[in-house]
Amino acid sequence: MKKNVIIIGAGHAGIQSAASLREEGFEGSICIFSEDADFPYQKPPLSKGYLDGSQQKNSIMFRSEAWYENNQVELKLGELVDKVDVSQNTVYATSGVYTFDFLVFATGAYNRELPIPIKGTDQPLYLRTMKDADYLKVALDQENVQDILVIGGGFIGLEIAAYAAKSGKKVTVVEYQPRLMQRVLPPMLSEHFAAKHKAYGVDLRMGVGVQALNQDSRWTASLSTGETVAADQVVVGIGVLPSQNLAEQAGIKCSNGIEVNEFCETSVTGVFAIGDCALHPNPFAGGGMVRLESVQNAVDQAKVIASTICGKPTSYHQVPWFWTHQYNLKLQMAGLSEGYDQLIVRGDVEGDKFSVFYFKNNQLIAVDSINKPADHLQARKWIQASYTPDVQKLSDDSIKLNEC
């Protein structure tokens, strides 16, 4: 009798799971549940190309409708899963009760909300779905909207700030940490991005919290400094939290995410978790448990669970990589730089074409590249192979990178 797989979530992790299962020869039924009623789409472009109009709706879809039909992948869109009973291998959804042989949590993450008093008829804007992006674009593009307040100096907040600033809006960014993107970047790169935002007229308020939001005819934000900022629209991007409630309620072990082993299997046999919701052992974090919010992680973990379900278990061992695009700065990140004790800068910093190489205990652990895609690809190969280049050669720009 053929086995069946239920996947909860239709983001990168969920759709890649279905694709990889078929590529691995899985012949059983595959059903994907998604709370989002829109046809499955990529989320990273929502704050980049989709927001600025360079990418249209059809260009950010994962697959065509024909692909799902041809590969016998059933989509249940706009369908909420209320409960999972792992003792009975059962999923309770809006349309009924479904049984599974294998279950995949690809539930992603949800926006962290402002824990402050908010008064007014409207709410600040958040970005997570295509509907959010459509609404955000209309809201920001209105002629009577000139002053934009962005709360949060991470990837999403800054990508939205860059779009608004390039559109001629007056933008203020308020960030609680003393630096932009502090969680993932060293001071040098934080300062490089800060300088670019300032060049476009963005008012950066660093090390500052928002204590209250009030809306009358306009928004007024009360800051921890005692100052206020007035705005026509407020956008919030202060990070995300793993969507783990379903798993937690099912008795599956969770902490900062749904805990999994090196095969992305949870504390319950035959139940997997992948992507933004999964807390996993990562060899590029010294084997420590981490939760990564990236396309790479979602896609590669999906391939791991497909192999395991098809009887060919393969442990997860892929270099993490990420990217952000702000103005003319395309930052590509390979590896995890936390805990570095040495860095080397290579390239033209003033010309916005350079890379930063991070070392820990004389081992290359990460590389951040701005407008240097070849450096990024080389870095991924080196880190995957645990290769460390010659530091003296690396410090000499006249020596080609692949000769270091």
TrEMBL record:
Its cofactor is FAD. Residues 321-403 form the Reductase C-terminal domain. It comes from the Bacteria. One of its GO terms (molecular function) is oxidoreductase activity, acting on NAD(P)H. Keywords: FAD, Flavoprotein, Oxidoreductase. This is Pyridine nucleotide-disulfide oxidoreductase. It holds the Pfam family Pyr_redox_2. It comes from Mongoliitalea lutea. One of its GO terms (cellular component) is cytoplasm. The keyword Oxidoreductase applies. Residues 4-302 form the FAD/NAD(P)-binding domain. InterPro entries: FAD-oxidoreductase/Apoptosis, FAD/NAD-bd_sf, FAD/NAD-binding_dom, FAD/NAD-linked_Rdtase_dimer_sf, Reductase_C.
